[in-house]
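User: I'm writing a tutorial on reading structure tokens. Could you give me a worked example: one chain, its sequence, then its tokens, then a sentence or two explaining what the tokens reveal?
Assistant: Sure. Here is the example chain.
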Amino acid sequence: MSWFRPWRIRDFAELRTYGFTAYCTGEAVEAGGALITPHRANVPMVLQGVGIMPGDYVFADESGAVIIPGAEIDEVLRGATAVKQEDADFREQISQERSSAGESTRGKRER
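And here are its predicted structure tokens:
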């Protein structure tokens, strides 16, 4: 189909509130054209009171965003991995408790 072009859409959080299904090939931002033109690159800046330096990492999703200093990225990723594993361990513990018909877990670590 020569007319078919993969479409990207934006505003996922808002779209979830509508009573229809939307399909796309990815997420997009509004095209800026002449409105959004890079002015500077690789310079320190402040955004909403948060300092951002060249080499920092930005992690963002529909819930929010965080700036991770470049020098701390390995430590942050290790911490995030540990939290993810801890959550998985708790889910497993809960699953085992349910399957054992409520055996006591007194003394075990709880969040």
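What the tokens reveal: The helical segments are 12-15, 73-99. The chain has a mean pLDDT of 79.
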